[in-house]
Amino acid sequence: ASTCPAETIDPQAFRRVCENLVQNAAKYGDLSLPITLSLNVEANQAILKVKNFGNPISDEKLHHLFEPFTRGDQAVSTNQPGWGLGLTVVRGLVDAHNGSVQVTSSQEAGTSFVLRFPLV
Question: Whole-angstrom Cα distance, residue 46 to residue 40?
């Protein structure tokens, strides 16, 4: 297995991305089930995956999840504090590193955020 060169990804940006995703997983997921993080290197990419279980994100919300001030149904229904900017920040930092972010969510498989960063 290869290692991720430190100069490829800004450490503060990477930390912010991880914090935002884990905080959301803890805020909106089922805390009786684990939140998992994995970081792997495949085909010249660093791949970060954050996964949790709980109520899934609706398909409609998935399409708008990274837009500023967008909050999931659970955030609204449970009166969780927040501005709906955390995932916008995640997308911006990933884009700034020429990366990509994908999210899938279902009751059975949980919610997964998969981020891919090119290694140069």
Answer: 6
